[in-house]
Design a protein that fits this description.
The complex is a heterodimer of chains A (109) and B (116). With 109 residues, chain A is mostly beta strands. Chain A is built from no helices and eleven strands. In chain B, strand 4 and strand 5 form a beta hairpin. Chain B is an all-beta fold. The chains are: A mainly beta (109), B mainly beta (116).
Chain lengths: 109, 116
């Protein structure tokens, strides 16, 4: 069973819409969760981390965590063409740091 | 403020050759990682280290070796290169994974390796 799973997409949304990205994880002991954005040909960069159940907001980004259901999601409000990238969910069980396969997002002007 | 530095950025290897990807960080991080990313795919953990002298296998360690003689350096060795090792390699580092501190990992810019 994969540690972290994401819908690979691609996901397309019109400019100004809300993009919703989902991630499920297998290790119930995981305590912190990270969302990264990766532009083509670049290294991943951190968008948000979350460790408590519920929502965490940062600008246009909202991370949602549900430990009972073992999923974490990322909402991007007022999507912009510059948000077009691959979004990676990361879960660090213990000393390792596992990434999902990523969801490719395209925001259409 | 260099962060995580990887060299070389691009390399072409012939089948059966060996090489070392260099990685160094100047943030005094305990944890270091090597990932590979195949085209259109996610990151796969090759090896990681929680401190000098300590290394452990990740998801895809076969065909690779690492060492961690200092806190700063974490080289990745490819022995007998194969076409299946054509990929982008990312080195990364972090302090630790304290859950509430959000100690994320910081990535190098990547090394593009082609084996022909």
């Amino acid at each position: 069973q994969k540690e972290v799973e994401q819908n690979s997409g691609p996901l397309s949304v019109p400019e100004g819409a809300i993009a919703s990205l989902n991630c499920t994880y297998s290790d119930r002991g995981s305590q912190s969760f990270f969302w990264y954005r990766q532009y083509s040909g670049k290294s991943p960069e951190l968008i948000m981390f979350i460790y408590s159940n519920g929502d965490k907001e940062d600008g246009r980004f909202t991370a949602q965590l549900n430990k009972a259901s073992q999923y974490v999601s990322l909402l991007i409000r007022d999507s912009q063409p510059s948000d077009s990238a691959t979004y990676l969910c990361a879960v660090p069980p213990g000393n390792q740091f596992y990434f999902g396969t990523g969801t490719s997002l395209t925001v259409i002007p | 403020n260099a962060g995580v530095t990887q060299t070389p950025k691009f390399r072409i290897l012939k089948i059966g050759q060996s090489m070392t990807l260099q990685c160094t960080q100047d943030m005094n991080h305990n944890y270091m990682y090597w990932y590979r990313q195949d085209p259109g795919m996610g990151l796969k953990l090759i090896y990681y280290s929680v401190g000098a002298g300590i290394t452990d296998k990740g998801e895809v360690p076969n065909g690779y070796n690492v060492s961690r003689s200092t806190t700063e350096d974490f080289p990745l060795r490819l022995e007998l290169a194969a076409p299946s090792q054509t990929s982008v390699y990312f080195c990364a580092s972090s302090y630790s994974q304290g859950p509430e501190s959000g100690n994320t990992i910081y990535f190098g810019e990547g090394s593009w390796l082609t084996v022909v």
